[in-house]
Each structure stands twice: as structure tokens, then as C-alpha cells.
Amino acid sequence: MTRENPYNSSYKSTSHLSPFPVANFQVDFNLVRNYNSLDMKNTSLVGLIVVLLFFSSGCVPDKYKFTGEFGKPGSGKGEFLSGTDMAINKDGDLIICDAGNSRFQIVSSDDGSPKLVAGEHGTTGYKVQGISGIGVNPLTSDIWLCDLRGNKLVKFDKRGNPIAKAVDKMKYPLDCAVDRMGNVYVIMSKQPALYKYDAQGAFMETIGGTAKAALIYATSIVIYEDYIYVADFGGKKVIKLSLKGEFIREFDKKGVGKYDEEMKGPSSIFVDNSGNLLILDLGDIPILILSPDGEIISRIGTYGNEKGQFLYPRGIVEKPSGEIIVLDNSRNVALTFKKLVQ
């Protein structure tokens, strides 16, 4: 997750526009007016034309709305510098990888109020040099921090005390995920396979890495119900694997059927309690939500430097209440989106 910012820094705010692509949604209103001379129910016909044009354009109903954001640039508690990843623990608190401050923070997912700060910059012991990703044990809430530059993982207990590290075969670890047995699955820069470690940081084996299970440039990994999901930024897809590394399926479209636009570069992923995939992807709309079968559910967000917009989204989670939270690396805030009542 520590590549160069792929988003255009010269992006101009389009907050006045719809959050969905509308370039192909053009109605010839002169043509519509011509129907007024026909002996039929003009209003119903025009309405039908507009509806058909809307759905043929590939637009997706927006089922979420921006509700607020928290955080600001800085080195104090509840402040961030270049956040690179975010996770959520079993208590519903956020764990934010605060890379610019060489630490992680646990904050409330409701308002960002700080609860714990841990981590220290350095080259010895449990100190870190350049952190990238974070993984949380779903049962104990222990935290594994990926030290990209230090070529190691550091394990912290839920109170922020460093208790172990993994160094064997480490080469630029980008992100990690933890299963219910405490085993850790690590993606490393430009490595096709996943590296598996036990709960104490001892190397166990590599899994996947061949045929359809091979990665090009993976940047994010999560585990849900004993399945591994990896966002392969280089491969422009998300891959689903078993815990043994066996290929199950891939998601390379922004939805199936009429919404079959190809992914442009998924950089972060989260799987909610229903098995839906929340994906940060390149393109006009940063947040993509797919069903377990790849059907599109929603696309959310716009790029810009205003409140409620993104410059460089890097982490995404969903709260038990259903609210989506996205960490922005450049604006140094976390943005919250709430599902609309249908």
C-alpha cells in the first residue's frame, strides 16, 4: 500500500455533479418535444424515455450518503499524517495505520475520539521505520503492524504493548490479515504468493502464487469466514482464495451484467457481515460495493479537496451498524457514509 499516489493531484472538484458517470447520459430534448405532437399520453412517454435512457447508461442508484468526517493533520492524539490502512476490531473501534507518525491509533468509530496510541520510530527491537498495512486478530484484537522499510511485522496486544515480531523471509510487507487460529497471511511487494506465519511470528509456508492464484501487485488482504480476499492492484482484480491458497474466484468487473465495466486498480478491500465486498478502485467513483456474486450494490463518492470528498483513499471498513468509513491519506481524515432507507 505504499506506492505513489495514482490519483491525479491536479484533479478539479466536481462536487456540483452527480457522483456517477453521466458523460453517456445525454437526452435529446428536441426529440422529446417532437413527441408532443403525437396522439398519446405525452408525459408518460417522455418519462419512459428518460427512465430507459437512465438505466441503459450504466448509472447505479446511490444508496449511501455522506454524513461526516473526523480527524485532522498532526501528531497529537486523534490526528493523522499519511494514514495508509485501517481496520476495525471486535469492539467496533477503528485501528488506523498512522504512517507519518510511525504509529497506530485506536479511535472511536463514532466520532474519532482517541483511545490508544502505540508504536515508535526506529530500527531496533519493536520500533518501526515505514508502516504500510495492519491486521487484527478477530478473537483477541491483537494487532500486527507491517513495517515495509524495516522488513518485519510487529505484533501488539490490544493494550498497545509489543509482544512479538516476524522477520523470516520478509521483503517489503504491504499488508496482512489474521485468521481465527491467529495465523497471519502477508502480501509482499510484487510477490505472487502469500506468506503464512503462526501467532508468534514463525514462518510456516507460502500459499497460492500459481495460475489464477498468482498475484501481480497486491495491496490489500482480508479474511472473511475462512476465505481470503486480496486486492490485486497490478492485476486489476480482487481474488478469493481458500485458507490453503486455492483459487475460488475473481472479481475483475465493477459489477456483472449491464454494469460490467472493468476494474481499474483496486487498492483496498473489506468484506461486511453479509459477504459484500467494499472495494476502493481507481476511476471517477472511489467506492465500489459488490454482492458475494459480483452484482453491483452501489458506487459512492467523488474526488476533490472539499469536505466529503477524497484525494487519496487508502482504507475502508464497515461498522456493525452498516456505516462505511473511508480513510483518506492526503486529507488526513476519515469519512463516514450512511446507508439510505430504501
Provide key terms for this protein.
globular, Neuraminidase, mainly beta, disordered N terminus, 6% helix, 4-stranded antiparallel sheet, 24 strands, 342 residues
Question: Can you describe what's shown?
Answer:
- The structure is a single chain.
- By secondary structure, the protein is mainly beta.
- The protein folds into two domains: 22-59; 64-339, Neuraminidase, CATH 2.120.10.
- Helix content is 6%, strand content 37%.
- It is built from two helices and 24 strands.
- The strands form six sheets. Strands 1-24-23-22 form a four-stranded antiparallel sheet, with no helix packed on it. A four-stranded antiparallel sheet has the order 2-3-4-5, with no helix packed on it.
Helix content: under 10%
Q: Within the CATH hierarchy, at the fold level, what is the topology of the largest domain? A: Neuraminidase
- Count of helices? 2
Query: How far from one another are the termini?
Result: 35 Å
The secondary-structure class comes to mainly beta
CATH architecture term of the largest domain: 6 Propeller
Query: Rg from C-alpha positions?
Result: 22 Å
Main sheet record: 4 strands, antiparallel
Strand order of the largest sheet: 1-24-23-22
What is the N-to-C order of secondary-structure elements (H for helix, E for strand)?
HHEEEEEEEEEEEEEEEEEEEEEEEE
Q: Could you give the count of β-strands?
A: 24
How many independent structural domains? 2
CATH class of the largest domain: Mainly Beta
Annotate the secondary structure layout.
Layout: H1 29-34, H2 42-56, E1 64-70, E2 83-88, E3 94-98, E4 103-107, E5 114-118, E6 131-136, E7 143-147, E8 152-156, E9 162-166, E10 173-178, E11 184-188, E12 194-197, E13 203-207, E14 218-224, E15 227-232, E16 237-242, E17 247-251, E18 268-271, E19 277-280, E20 287-290, E21 296-300, E22 313-318, E23 324-328, E24 333-339
Antiparallel strand pairs: 1-24, 2-3, 3-4, 4-5, 6-7, 7-8, 8-9, 10-11, 11-12, 12-13, 14-15, 15-16, 16-17, 18-19, 19-20, 20-21, 22-23, 23-24
